Amino acid sequence: MRTSKRARIKDVAEHAGVSSMTVSRVLNQDPKVSDVKRALVVESVKALNYRPNVSARRLASNKSFFIGLLYFDLDTSYVSKFLLRGLKVCRTTGHHLVVDEIDDDIEKSLASVDELIEETRVDGLILLPHVCDNAKLLAVLKAANIPFVRIAPDTQLSLSPYICMDDYQASFEMTELLIKKGHTKIGHIIGNPNQGVSRLRYQGYLDALRSHQINTPPEYIEQGLFSYDSGLIAAKKLLALDERPTAIVAANDEMAAAVLAAANIARINVPEELSISGFDDGNVAVTVSPNLTTVRQPIHQMAELAIDIIASGKFSDLSKANTREFRNVLDFEIIERDSTANAPVN
Fold first, then answer.
1. Which residues of 180-218 are buried (b: 16+ CB within 10 A; e: fewer)?
2. Cα separations in angstroms, 91 against 26, 49, 260
3. Which of 195-209, 224-238, 267-281, 316-330 is predicted least confidently?
4. How many Cα atoms sit within 13 Å of 71 on the Cβ side?
5. How far apart are CA 17 and CA 265, in angstroms?
6. Which 8-state DSSP code applies to residue 280?
7. pLDDT exceeds cutoff 80 at 61
8. Pairwise CA distance, residues 248 & 312, whole Å
9. In the prediction, which pLDDT does 340 show?
10. Helices (H), the chain
């Protein structure tokens, strides 16, 4: 049986037209390599399906080439999308992504994190919402001087590098999009109260309405948990109102999909009678019918940047890091699909 020969650093160097030393420096995230040579090496790594020998690289450096990812709830397209992108990026950089869940039993979860750090000697950790704001976890990581990058944190912003988007502005613009379509009766399903982005998206919704002198009755606002089930409960309440909203802004796509299901149960036509918008642009946004108008969150770029920050070793000692460089705000995009339309004419 014939098997293909595994590519070596020498093969990557020849393919890219650079030295083996340059390839090694790129794989080790050396910032001194020029962008042109780095691009050539990355392209050659992909073309040859090169996978670095992690054991050899560990011996030649102080790195483990393991990166940890801590999450709270895998049952969301956001976490799944981030995870899959992270795995793909690590495959091209020669790192391994080690994934662990933080649940409501924080003491048990902290013990699991201690074990992960002890067994893998991770080069750093990525903390997804709302793990990124857990005070006990942050204290443990800080005491151990373990580098970590937080995604969309809401507290202690000078503690570590973090990556986010402007959730407030995105929600403001999404709500304003509906207002420009003639909607004045716009409901909102708030996200999980444990996550800072929920507050930012709620505030953006409120301020967009206020900027257009639109008064919103309190019954137009329902609490959700970023889950489909919570969205369904909230949506049924909103759609059962005597004077129901003509549009609903849900704080994520799962809850927006639940609004769509509730409308179907109530035989309310979308988007002719009810416009629905979501947030994140996860897989569910294009698997439901009609497809969801949503905010495209740069999840892929967030995963890539988080891994790049840890792999670079730039913040390996957080106590000596320049906190002015911690903030990384990425762009969002409003994606209009078939779940929104002009307000119905009474």
1. ebebbbbbbbbbbeebbbbbbbbebbbbbbeeeeeebee
2. 14, 9, 37
3. 316-330
4. 17
5. 61
6. B
7. no
8. 42
9. 98
10. 9-16, 20-27, 35-48, 54-60, 77-93, 106-120, 135-144, 167-180, 196-211, 228-239, 253-265, 299-312
In this model, does residue 252 exceed pLDDT 50? yes
Assessment of whether the complete model's pTM goes beyond 0.85: no
The 3-state secondary structure of 78-107, one letter per residue? HHHHHHHHHHHHHHHHCCEEEEEECCCCHH
Euclidean distance between CA atoms 251 and 137, whole angstroms:
26
Place of tokens 């595994």: 6
CA distance 47 to 264: 47
The answer to whether residues 335 and 280 touch, using CB atoms and an 8 Å cutoff, is no
Q: Where are the alpha helices (DSSP H) in 192-243?
A: 196-211, 228-239
How do residues 253-275 score in pLDDT, each as one tens digit?
Answer: 999 999 999 999 999 999 999 99
Q: Which residue has the tokens 């001194």?
A: 32
Sequence-distant (≥ 6) Cβ neighbours of residue 99 within 8 angstroms = 68, 69, 71, 83
Q: Which domains does the chain have, with CATH numbers?
A: 12-50 (1.10.260.40), 63-165+299-331 (3.40.50.2300), 167-297 (3.40.50.2300)
To the nearest 10°, report the CA torsion of 288, 291, 294, 300: 70
Whole-number Å distance between alpha carbons of 233 and 255? 10
Residue 254: closest CA among 274, 234, 277, 227: 227
| Token pair belonging to 214 | 């639109």
Tokens of 132: 């990124």
Half-sphere exposure of residue 270, counting CA atoms within 13 Å on the CB side?
29
pLDDT recorded at residue 119: 83
Contact between 237 and 214 (Cβ < 8 Å):
no
Name the token pair of 158.
Answer: 């000078």
Report whether 134 contacts 155 (CB < 8 A).
no
